[in-house]
Amino acid sequence: MGVSLYYSAERDTPLTGDERATIARLASEGEESLREEALELFPAWHASGEMPEEYRSPAEVFEGLFLYSEEHLHGAQVLAGSSKVPPSACGFEPLFAQLRHYLDALGRMRRALPGARWHVHIDDAEIPWTEDGYTLGDGTP
């Protein structure tokens, strides 16, 4: 059983077409920035044991920012999704890299959806929002 990052936003008005496009772009940018960093760090992660040698590409380790289709939204939800975090065989560095990039993307999504109420958590652990963005509570944005 894996651990996942979950995210949702609720508001009284549905997303506009422009907002949908912005959300899709921000998700893609978050995924791409993680992929680029991971490609640079894979050799170091392999050498340090943070990443088992069997994983050769970011796609094998990092699930994207998966946004549920409209028929899977509930109540006032205008956006919801989830992303599995790296397998337990990986160390903390790949996990924190994914969280850093995806929480940044979710923060930019939050700012792009005025008036939405957000809920972001890893399984049962809520991820707090500050004026600087989502934080893991240890100063890690």
Q: Key terms for this structure?
A:
5-stranded antiparallel beta sheet, single chain, alpha+beta, 3 helices, two-stranded antiparallel ribbon
Explain what you see.
Helix 1 packs antiparallel against helix 3 (92-112). Strands 2-3-1-4-5 form a five-stranded antiparallel β-sheet, with helices on one face. It has a two-stranded antiparallel sheet with strand order 6-7. The protein is of the alpha+beta class and 141 residues long. The longest helix is centred in the N-terminal third of the chain and has 32 residues, at 17-48. It has helices at residues 17-48, 58-61, 92-112; strands spanning 4-10, 66-67, 77-84, 117-122, 125-126, 129-130, 133-134. Helices cover 40% and strands 21% of the residues. The relative contact order is 0.25.
